[in-house]
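We now fix the convention by which a protein and its fold are recorded. These numbers are not coordinates but entries in a learned vocabulary of local backbone shapes. A record is reproduced here so that you can trace the correspondence yourselves:
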Amino acid sequence: MEVTREKKYRNLLVYLFIIIFGLVTYSLDLYPGGYQLDYVDAQSITITKIDIIQEEQYKIELTEENALKFALLKSEIIFLKTLWLMGIVVFSTWFISISNLVERKEFKPALIISGIFIVIFVMAIFVYIDRLNFLKKVIGGLLV
């Protein structure tokens, strides 16, 4: 089956939208449970939790005791952002694959791929929630 010029442009626009959306959400810290680290000076940081409706800020003084916790916090935030970005990529890949298969009327492969991706999504959601809970514990340990 030959791919038409219209379909190539449509797929290209979808891919560009996905890339731009992913880069914007990653660079602006727009992800569920989004945390942002702002360095006030060499001895203190501000952690901002960005929700849709509100923002919470925590100011933390860096000491020797909490330096490792801060490094862990920074690592977890990077992990969450990366997991969010990979979720966008995987969801987009699934959506494009399914739309192409359904357009060609290949329903059995579409169902198999959908089943695999549903399992991946469920596992990723559990990992994401677990990491968010762990991040909250680390922040709680820094505030005490």
